[in-house]
Amino acid sequence: MGSSPKIVVLGAGLAGIGAATKLKTLGFKDVTIIEASGEAGGRIAKACFGKTWIDTGAQFIHGASEANPVYCLLKQHGLLTDVVIEDGTELMFHSKGHRVSADLANRVYEAGEEIVRQQHRGSPGKNMGDYFAENSLGLVNSWRVSDEEKMDILSILTLVGKSLLIDIGAQALNSVALDSWQYYTNMGDDLNIEGNMFPLIAKLLEDFPKDCLLLDRPVVKISWDGSFCDHDKRLYPVSVECENGEKFLCDHVVVTFSLGCLKAAPVTMFDPQLPDDKREVIEKLGFGCVNKIFLLYEKAFWERDAGSISLLWEDETPASLSTDSPQWQKNIQFFTVMRPREKFGNVLIGWCTGSVAQHIETMTEAELSAAITCNFRRFMGNPCIPCPKMVLRTQWHSKAFVRGSYSYIPAGVDGVIMDQLADPLSSRKNSSEDLQVLFAGEATIKNLYGTVQGALLSGYREAERLSQHYGRPVPSSTPCSSPTAI
Length: 486
Fold this sequence. Notes:
This protein has two domains: 6-42 and 196-284 and 413-469, FAD/NAD(P)-binding domain; 84-192 and 290-393, Polyamine Oxidase, Chain A, domain 2. It contains 13 helices and 23 strands. The two termini are 20 Å apart. By secondary structure, it is an alpha/beta fold. A hairpin with a 5-residue loop joins strand 10 (228-229) and strand 11 (235-236). The strands form seven sheets. Strands 6-18-19-20-17-21 form a six-stranded mixed β-sheet. The protein has helices at residues 14-25, 69-76, 102-116, 128-142, 147-168, 199-204, 259-264, 276-284, 341-344, 354-360, 365-380, 417-422, 452-469, and strands at 6-10, 30-34, 46-49, 52-55, 60-62, 89-94, 190-192, 213-214, 219-223, 228-229, 235-236, 238-242, 247-250, 252-255, 270-271, 286-288, 290-297, 306-312, 334-337, 346-353, 390-393, 406-408, 437-439.
């Protein structure tokens, strides 16, 4: 092996790209990325819709500041120039057919956000659902309002809870740990960069050797702690076998599969099998699903400065909050307006999570169009609202090489177990660490799980782990310094 180890990175999402490009920056020459699908990017993905390309995957920066390396990379590559920074007007309509007072909506939503965004520590076993329901009721009772206003307030607070579920990807707040964010690193405010996330993938791969990025190669087996002979008669401890029969021998493999894929993988994927503690972590952690429904209209039926449209159901309260598929129409109630209009046209994005997100994958786009149009007409009191001329819904749960959106921490689970998922595997035949199998991805980083920068930084982490293993210096870097492949 000497100073030129052979390294294979499995997965060309941001974790895999981060690991591979960082390895090249650190002086490793023999680095190959193997990707199961036909395109790099993973959960950063695109589609042509109407007059332009859109992000069908990640579109938010969780931390629009120079503390966030993804923000810095986007800025360096000029991908933030047409992003709309200002929040648009938030429009809320009631199922009784009237518009909810903007003043009331903003005050209540802000108060609800204060409840759900707190960083809790030392609350093992407690869940977000019970905490949110209890504190929402206390908030309502503390305000002197009429019974009718009270019901509107409860409906708005329920929307806050459902919006949180979209951020988390879970089916119910009762299933999410109250102290989910006890280790979370806050890098700043969120920023919607819709239509500008997917170009980052090509930018990051510009200098990576094209013949070292292998697409359409699903992996069926990862054999490690072995002794595999290559055509050059050299022995390697790891063998990666693809569906087409190709085998890649290496000294180290960096696995960046999504948590959803790790959950779905047969126990025979790894040989020897993963240790019991790592399999237990994979089983314990949650992996949610969020889908988007893109709706393109000939003409906008919403105000020019609108940033979102929300539909409030009169019979919902935080205590009854759920995303059961039989109630799927009630769970497609939050729509963001794609901006700027000059770039995207008249486009809304409907958001849904949990079992509802999975359910809409089984529906036709015509069925979705009809149901959503019916709701808009009812809530906005306008029977003339047209059907969209084009509909596109994402299907992240059905994607075989992703199987969902991002990880979350279930009630009763401490996020520290993500550290165990990140622990590398070394040979069991000798006492020295040789880091044969390494793990990266957003589910392996407890302070930034569920984020794009979490995925990227987890890839950097494993590259630096290998560099330190070989006694190579790891240059100190600021969040806004990015690796350039050599």
